[in-house]
Amino acid sequence: ESGAVATNGTQQVGWATDPYGADDHAMLWSGMHDSQVDLNPSRFSLSFANAIDGQSQVGVGETLSTAHALLWHGSAASAIDLNPKDYVYSYATGVSGNKQVGFGTKSDYSYHALIWSGKASKFVDLQNALPSSLTQSYAASIDAAGNVGGYATEADGTPHAIVWQPVK
Fold it and tell me: How many angstroms separate the CA atoms of 5 and 49, rounded?
């Protein structure tokens, strides 16, 4: 099985399983089924690619105990673990240029929208830009101008669409 979830116009990303329908691996294709590149880094048992731009792919790598946001540049060997220190889990959901977005889970299991600049140590917690009434947040996409789309929720789960804009 396989599924493509995003494209940059010439390449596609998603996932594929082994012949038995197990062991999901992030995949990169260039328009044909036989052009696949397995992006799964060896330290992760599963992976999924969620977004692509002209040069980069983002997604998540999973083990039995954790999930970490990943950034790739066309190969498994290029994988960069974006999981920030002090975050239990993280997921990358969008990429544009040298910026990646997604969300991470803190030790109290609260979700925080995150934006990275290519390294685990170079991130901003976008939750800090929101009013205290919004207790959890998720970044889903980023455009070429740096606008981040996502949502945040109140303590009771009421969702709100959010756009974070870069400070100029």
Answer: 8
Task: Please say whether the beta carbons of 33 and 40 come within 8 A.
Answer: no
Alpha-carbon distance of 57 to 26, in angstroms, equals 10
Q: How far apart are CA 83 and CA 13, in angstroms?
A: 20
Strands 57-62 and 159-164: unpaired
**In this structure, are residues 23 and 46 in contact, taking their beta carbons and an 8 Å threshold?**
yes
The token pair that represents 68 in the structure block: 């970490």
**Which residues are within 8 A (CB) of 87 and not within 5 positions of it... i.e. 6 or more apart?**
104, 105, 106, 112
pLDDT (tens digit, 9 = 90+) per residue, 38-67? 999 999 999 999 999 999 999 999 998 999
pLDDT (tens digit, 9 = 90+) per residue, 153-168? Answer: 999 999 999 999 998 7
Q: What does the pLDDT look like over 66-78, one tens digit per residue?
A: 999 999 999 999 9
Q: How high is the pLDDT of residue 33?
A: 81
* Predicted TM-score (pTM) of this structure: 0.95
Name the amino acid, one letter, at 1. Answer: E
The residues pairing with 30 across neighbouring beta strands, listed in sequence order, are: none
State the amino acid at position 160 in one-letter form.
H
CB 58 within 8 A of CB 69: yes
